[in-house]
Design goal:
The chain contains seven helices and twelve strands. The chain is α/β, with parallel strands linked by helices. It is globular.
Length: about 260
């Protein structure tokens, strides 16, 4: 049976680092409010329903309300983006609230968004704001930073193994070492293993088994089949949604699937 899991962006609350980099009070809502239409009938900016509003994810009551809606409408769970830079975590506040709030019944897993943050994310230069560095110590630290979540009864497991998603494994040239370390630590800490999943966000047709992973997630859209309609300056591009969707549905299986 297919079980739906939604990726969850925790950027909708204020943190000191974003205040420093983007200005006091910055959250993802700033990008939502500032969105502009670029073609006829382009529905921007998108204004949230009054029953939800411009919410703050550090509000425990709202998190209960939001997660309750997800349960009522049949969502199996959330996959929360997790930002850890050599032990320095960003945007983890909502996840900590969820861990400690037993009124929230939703299943969940974690996706390590393992890329450096730069101003290019905001369409500016590539100045590095906080760098992602890799090492064996980092692999160990990542596991133990997540162990409290892995041990939660709500955490999604495959045959008892915590489901751990990596956003861009190919950003880490030592990813095979990481997978070996994580599997060893999982068994050492009384789990039967760890179920590692890569996200096909920037790479395609790379067998996850080649670096010790168990599965991969297609991250739509696949830009290799997206249907480009127009290009505005160097920053904005317009894609034909229907044709892109058709192309996605007609894609052949990856070459690593027998």
């Amino acid at each position: 049976m297919v079980k739906l899991i939604a990726f969850y962006l925790p950027q909708f609350h204020e943190i000191p680092e974003n205040n420093l980099w983007w200005g006091k009070g910055f959250t993802e809502w700033d990008n939502v409010r500032n969105a502009k239409p670029f073609f006829f009938n382009h529905d921007q900016p998108r204004i949230p329903d009054n029953n939800i509003g411009y919410y703050d994810l550090m509000n425990s009551n709202f998190l209960e309300f939001q997660h309750g809606m997800a349960l009522r409408y049949g969502l199996h769970g959330f996959c929360y983006y997790y930002y850890n830079f050599d032990g320095h975590t960003l945007l983890e506040g909502p996840l900590k609230i969820i861990l400690n709030n037993r009124n929230i019944k939703n299943n969940y897993c974690i996706c390590w968004a393992n890329e450096s943050w730069t101003r290019a994310w905001y369409g500016q230069n590539k100045e590095v704001l906080i760098e992602q560095r890799y090492s064996e110590k980092n692999a160990i630290d990542i596991f133990y930073s997540l162990k409290k979540y892995f041990s939660d009864t709500r955490y999604i497991k495959i045959n008892g193994m915590p489901l751990f998603v990596i956003y861009n494994p190919c950003d880490n040239h030592s990813i095979s070492v990481y997978s070996d370390i994580w599997k060893y630590l999982a068994r050492k800490n009384k789990f039967p293993g760890i179920f590692l999943v890569s996200v096909e966000s920037l790479i395609y047709n790379v067998d996850p088994a080649s670096y010790g992973f168990d599965a991969s997630i297609e991250f739509a859209p696949d830009w290799t089949v997206a249907c480009l309609e127009d290009k505005i300056e160097e920053t904005f591009r317009i894609y034909d949604y229907k044709r892109t969707a058709i192309n996605m549905m007609m894609k052949s299986d990856p070459n690593y699937i027998p």
